[in-house]
């Protein structure tokens, strides 16, 4: 799914393995597209046991983006699914500045989608 155009972000959802969903996001996340991001992330939840939010190409993440991440992380927990955020440096700084590192599970620096799925570095 591409939510580009006037929304300023691109979103691709793909299912890998049996129940692993990777949502790759690129661009700037702000109040103009935070709700669309949340809806896209939420729509991927029903058959997911692990959701990886790949925000490696996100160049700005405002409070609307952080809100979407928090809500989806909580929805995953409610369903017994795991949620991992693979952040860009910009997103990592936003999460850390808002002290959300204890709430959102952040991938380690150097992790990739592959290492998160396979457990190998």
Automatic annotation (TrEMBL):
UniProt cross-references to PROSITE patterns, sorted A to Z: STAS
Stored PANTHER family: ANTI-SIGMA FACTOR ANTAGONIST TM_1081-RELATED, ANTI-SIGMA FACTOR ANTAGONIST TM_1081-RELATED-RELATED
Organism classification: Bacteria, Bacillati, Actinomycetota, Actinomycetes, Pseudonocardiales
All residue ranges annotated as the STAS domain in the record: 18-85
Organism for this UniProt entry: Amycolatopsis vancoresmycina DSM 44592
Any GO MF annotation of the entry: anti-sigma factor antagonist activity
SUPFAM superfamilies: SpoIIaa-like (SSF52091)
Pfam families to which the protein is assigned, alphabetical: STAS (PF01740)
Highest taxon, organism lineage: Bacteria
InterPro entries membership: STAS_dom, STAS_dom_sf
Protein's recorded name: Anti-sigma-factor antagonist
């Amino acid at each position: 799914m591409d939510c580009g155009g006037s929304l300023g972000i691109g979103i691709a959802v793909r299912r890998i393995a049996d129940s692993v969903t990777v949502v790759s996001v690129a661009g700037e996340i702000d109040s103009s597209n935070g709700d669309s991001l949340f809806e896209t992330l939420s729509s991927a939840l029903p058959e997911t046991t692990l959701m990886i939010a790949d925000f490696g190409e996100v160049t700005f993440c405002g409070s609307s983006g952080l809100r979407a991440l928090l809500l989806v992380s909580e929805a995953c927990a409610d369903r017994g699914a795991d949620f991992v955020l693979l952040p860009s440096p910009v997103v990592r700084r936003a999460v850390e500045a808002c002290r959300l590192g204890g709430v959102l599970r952040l991938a380690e620096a150097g992790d990739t989608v592959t290492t998160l799925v396979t457990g190998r570095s």
